[in-house]
Every structure is written in C-alpha cells, then in structure tokens.
Design goal:
Elements lengths: L15 E5 L4 E4 L6 E2 L13 H7 L1 H5 L3 H15 L5 E4 L5 H8 L5 E5 L9 E5 L11 E7 L8 H10 L1 E12 L4 H11 L4 H6 L6 E2 L2 H9 L3 E9 L14 H18 L4 E8 L7 H5 L2
The protein binds zinc ion.
Length: 289
C-alpha cells in the first residue's frame, strides 16, 4: 500500500520532501508543483483563538489590504451590482465585508470558525467550510488568505464551488510558492538558514499553491479560470519577527517586494474563476452523427 501521505493532494503524483523542520516536513509535487504539509503532530497543530488575530498576525489584521478590497469590489460590482449575494469564506474579523458594507453592498455573509458577531447588514455563519450545508448559493464567493490553511485543496475548492450560483464569481487569494520571496526562503533554508522558510511554512499554512496547482484544483471542480493577478501584501501588514533580525528582515522584505513587483513574481496570487455548465453525459451521443 502506498504511503498516502506522500501523494500530492491536487494531482495525485508522488511528492518528495522539500523542507524539513524539527516537528514537520513540507513536500513538493513534481507535477503541479504544489507544496504541502501532510500531517502535523497535535502539539504543533495550532488553534485559531483570539491570540491568532491579536498577537501572531497583529499587523496583518490591523492593516487590511484596501487596494485588494477595492479591486474585488469592482469585480463583484461588474458581475452582480450592489445587490450581489456575497459570501466571504474564512472572513476572519470581517474586514472585507465591512469594507463592502461601506461601499453600499447589502447582501453580505461571512463564514468562519471563530465565535463572533459582525455588524449589520453582515450575516455571520460560524462553521468550518467543509461542514457548511446550508444549500444557499451566492453571486460572489470570496476566499482571502484562507485556503492555504486547509489540508485538502480539492475538497476546499469543491466546497467553494458548491456555494457559487450559476455564472457567479469565485475569487481565491492565496500564496504563490514560486514567488521570489518563497524561492529566496527555500534557497536560504538549503543553506542552513531556515528562519524565513519557517515563517512562510508555519504550521498554520499547510497548502502552498503554485499558480498551476490552484488552477488544477479549481478545474477538478468544474471551475473555469477568469484570470490570475499577482500581488504583494502592503508592507505595513507584514508581521516581522521580533529580535535582532527584525531590521535586516524588514530591509530584505522591502527589497524582495521591489524586485518581485518588477518581475511579476509577487508573493500572492488572486485567481478568479466561474462555474461552467456541465454538459450532460448523453450530449455527445445525441449530437454526434
Ligand atoms: Zn501535484
């Protein structure tokens, strides 16, 4: 019986160990170039409590990427106008939905696993996406910096696809593991300096997508691509490590971001998809002489 832990969860090819940390390893697929952390020992697997928002990622949550929000609002507006039914899956503290509410969007739903209340008109669903069984569909399904936390990319993408109304817009914003920052971190780790890789491949992040692996996971769910853009997070949203390395890391992050912006190798990808209407299985038989 094959060691299923070493099978790429996107394309099924046998993956090889790419990075090793004291408590876990990151594997890389030679086919779709997806990278993933197969299993975490319980003591490493982190929980999502208020400290996750307030401490470990304070800058990230305190400095939402409003340029990203504005671009998404424009895409949603073009598709469904201000009445579009919108769900933000993994909405965290609801920053994007609050942004949309201020822009006049009224049909807003957030979904996440933490107990919280979000202000009207936002409706909040407290459930893991995999367990959501409401049967509702939405004109826009948004997943921002969330899918990398989920260990089964195809199941996660299928859960997002199920929420999408016919002709709707799915936006997935996640890491790009072949970006300049990721490549630099892996080269440093190969040289014995693993602090940057340890940050990018922290235990919260278990699915590190390449552009092809995200597209492939989407295609497996009957989703059609509508475009991919590369982005970096605003510098002030970067959570830098404490200690003596902080100034050097800050400088390096700025330098890498500048080069990445000039070469189209930014750290994140914003991929847009729509659902395709599946032909029924007798279509070809009926329409072929
Ligand atoms: Zn693969």
């Amino acid at each position: 019986m094959p060691n299923v832990r070493h099978v790429c969860p996107v394309c099924g090819r046998i993956a090889a160990t790419r990075l090793t940390f004291p408590d876990y390893a990151v594997l890389a697929c030679p086919g779709c170039r997806h990278e993933f952390t197969p299993e975490l020992p319980p003591r490493v697997a982190e929980t999502y409590d208020p400290a996750y928002f307030q401490k470990a990622h304070a800058n990230w949550f305190a400095n939402p990427d409003t340029a990203l929000f504005a671009d998404l609002a424009e895409s949603i507006g073009r598709c469904g106008g201000k009445d579009a039914r919108i769900i933000d899956v993994g909405c965290g503290n609801g920053a994007f939905l609050k942004f949309l509410a201020k822009r006049g969007f009224a049909n807003l739903t957030g979904l996440d696993i933490i107990p919280q209340a979000l202000p009207a008109p936002i409706r909040y669903l407290e459930t893991p996406i995999e367990d959501y069984a409401g049967g509702e569909t939405f004109d826009a399904v948004i997943s921002l910096a969330n899918i990398e936390h989920l260990p089964e990319p195809r199941a996660a993408m299928a859960a997002l696809a199920r929420l999408l109304a016919p002709g709707g817009l799915l936006a997935v914003y996640t890491v790009a593991n072949e970006s300049l920052l990721y490549r630099a971190a892996k080269i440093l780790a190969d040289c014995g300096l693993s602090f940057a890789a340890a940050r990018l491949y922290e235990p919260h992040h278990v699915s590190h997508f390449s552009v092809p692996s995200l597209a492939r996971a989407a295609a497996a769910c009957g989703l059609a691509p509508r475009g991919v853009t590369r982005r970096d997070i605003p510098k002030k949203a970067v959570d830098l490590p404490a200690g003596i390395l902080r100034p050097a890391v800050s400088l390096a992050v700025s330098a890498i971001a500048a080069v990445a912006a000039g070469t189209g190798t930014q750290m994140l990808q914003l991929a847009l998809f729509t659902n395709t209407v599946r032909r029924d299985k007798n279509y070809d038989a009926r329409n072929t002489v």
